[in-house]
């Protein structure tokens, strides 16, 4: 009998087949990246949690939102108990993460630690849960680098994530700052034995370079257009053009989409585009450009489930 592809969510294991609606492949529901002291890059569970929960519940009602891949990792203000509460209250499955973000946010434990030691830390969290919460991560991410080549500490963090992924059967989602360095990330991760189809290279919608996107997709990796709606970084016009180019090149089964809500000012309650921008604004434009319902389902539901589980197109 075929074992169902299981996803580790913040409320326990979930068969991939149980997720009937779309997923958001790269989001933050709880976060603290405040380095300026202005409190902007924060999603405080006590202050902003109710608004986050309400948005997810509304998206479940309106669009059938079934899953959120939440990529807040070590040093980013991760709060597994808050994620479990939001997931239960919104009735939307949430996958928590482990790993290390890019170098400005590295925690002291990275200093002088070898790749094996770091991988051991991640494997312990994956197998034993986050702290005393019992919440198990279902993905490694967002493991980060900046520039065209990862720094030495970023290389160690990426290699450790790859080793932990190979050891535990999870996948790795990266943070490629402003879309740069994705090919270098892919090379580092695969050199540790991680299959490309267990890798999602992040923020590629911020890189206006279709050739890079095609090279990543041709390798078998997922190409994440995951900052949809962040017009201050890139216009959705450019994002749509890049997406259509990748689809036309035959790589629909390699695309992931999300909004990467990473500041409370992006929440609808505060006048921002919200988690629903993908469904309310971007996907209707993609449909108008010829993307049909089957393609939308592939990109927004089947691809994220396949990324998390390692399943093939035929299986999900």
Automatic annotation (TrEMBL):
PROSITE patterns: PHOSPHOTRIESTERASE_2. Gene3D superfamilies: Metal-dependent hydrolases. InterPro entries: Metal_Hydrolase, Phosphotriesterase. It comes from the Bacteria. Keywords: Hydrolase, Metal-binding. Belongs to the metallo-dependent hydrolases superfamily. Phosphotriesterase family. This is Phosphotriesterase.
């Amino acid at each position: 009998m075929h074992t169902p592809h299981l996803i580790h969510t913040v409320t326990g294991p979930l068969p991939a087949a149980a997720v009937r609606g779309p997923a958001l492949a790269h989001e933050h529901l709880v976060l603290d990246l405040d380095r300026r002291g202005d409190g902007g890059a924060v999603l405080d569970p006590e202050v902003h949690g109710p608004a986050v929960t309400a948005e997810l519940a509304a998206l479940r009602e309106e669009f059938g939102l079934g899953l959120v891949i939440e990529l807040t990792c070590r040093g980013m203000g991760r709060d597994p108990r808050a994620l479990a509460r939001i997931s239960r209250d919104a009735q939307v499955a949430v996958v928590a993460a482990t790993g290390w973000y890019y170098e400005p946010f590295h925690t002291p434990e990275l200093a002088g630690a070898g790749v094996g030691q770091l991988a051991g830390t991640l494997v312990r969290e994956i197998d034993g849960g986050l702290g005393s919460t019992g919440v198990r991560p279902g993905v490694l991410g967002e493991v980060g680098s900046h520039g065209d080549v990862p720094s030495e500490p970023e290389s160690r963090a990426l290699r450790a994530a790859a080793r932990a992924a190979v050891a535990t059967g999870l996948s790795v989602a990266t943070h490629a700052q402003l879309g740069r360095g994705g090919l270098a990330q892919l090379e580092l991760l695969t050199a540790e034995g991680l299959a490309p189809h267990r890798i999602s290279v992040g923020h590629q919608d911020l890189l206006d370079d279709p050739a890079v996107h095609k090279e990543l997709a041709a390798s078998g990796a997922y190409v994440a257009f995951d900052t949809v709606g962040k017009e201050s970084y890139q216009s959705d016009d450019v994002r749509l053009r890049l997406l259509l180019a990748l689809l036309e090149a035959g790589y629909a089964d390699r695309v992931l989409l999300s909004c990467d809500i990473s500041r409370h000012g992006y929440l609808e309650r505060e006048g921002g585009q919200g988690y629903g921008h993908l469904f309310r604004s971007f996907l209707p434009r993609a449909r108008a450009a010829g993307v049909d319902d089957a393609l939308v389902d592939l990109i927004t539901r089947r691809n994220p489930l396949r990324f998390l589980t390692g399943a093939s197109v035929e299986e999900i």
